[in-house]
Design brief:
This is Transmembrane protein 245. With about 250 residues, the chain is an all-alpha fold. The protein has 9 helices and no strands.
């Protein structure tokens, strides 16, 4: 139940709106709301300023600590290690300090060029692909049959989507459950290889069934899953070959 003071305030407020000319109530309400919002913003700003002045003695050391921890200390440690290795190199080679200082620009240029050349050699294939692929894509965009390519991609994804939707029924779980029961009942070390071969179509059916529940994204998700499986298989084969080479060596 509303209190008498609230009812009195509400009636007084309604009386003020009744005094106004017809059609001015909305403008007055909007002005009151804007004024209240401005007062709230000013009050919040004053509170923030007051909190800043109260915590100013604590914020400055914290900011300096963050600055030193994130930039100054790592920079100092890196500079110290570089100078230490440089002085150690001068000591080991017997180079005078003055000659070492004079040779700093030449050595810096040599080191930078060596880093750039090593980076280019390390990513040589990627650079070649980018240097050849970007102009080809540019030529294909301006002079190639873009509409035909996009139409082919759309038709491919539509066909893949329709194929994936064929595996959306529940009989896939029957196949998976049958495979699990077969492993539980008939697994032996001598027929392990046959069960591994049999697991490939079962996993393919299971992945297709999971992708079919993704709706319109089923085709891209299936392509991503196949790519991840292929990458995992290739990495496992390479790892097995490396382990076999270590054992034979």
């Amino acid at each position: 139940m509303a209190s008498p003071s609230f009812e009195y305030f509400r009636s007084s407020f309604d009386n003020v709106f009744q005094i106004l000319p017809q059609g001015h109530e909305k403008a007055l309400k909007k002005a009151l709301y804007n004024t209240a919002a401005n007062f709230f913003v000013i009050f919040a700003s004053l509170v923030l300023v007051a909190v800043y002045f109260v915590l100013q003695a604590f914020l400055r050391p914290l900011l300096w600590a963050v600055l030193c921890g994130t930039f100054l200390y790592p920079f100092k440690r890196t500079l110290t290690s570089v100078l230490r290795s440089w002085l150690q190199g001068l000591h080991e080679s017997g180079t005078p300090f003055a000659a070492g200082v004079v040779l700093i620009p030449i050595k810096s240029v040599n080191d930078i060029s060596e880093i750039i050349s090593n980076t280019l050699i390390k990513h040589f294939k990627l650079i070649i692909v980018g240097a050849v692929g970007l102009p080809c894509l540019n030529l294909l965009y301006y002079f190639g049959p873009i509409d035909s390519i996009f139409s082919w991609i759309y038709n491919f994804f539509s066909f893949l989507y329709n194929v994936i939707q064929c595996f959306s029924s529940g009989w896939i779980w029957t196949v998976v459950l049958g495979y699990v029961i077969m492993i539980a009942l008939y697994w032996k070390p001598e027929n392990n290889k046959q069960l591994q071969y049999l697991s490939i179509p079962v996993w393919v059916l299971f992945v297709l069934h999971l992708c079919s529940s993704a709706g319109s994204l089923s085709a891209p998700i299936f392509i991503l899953a196949v790519a991840m499986l292929a990458i995992g298989y290739v990495s496992e084969v390479n790892q097995a070959k490396a382990e076999k080479g270590e054992v034979s060596g």
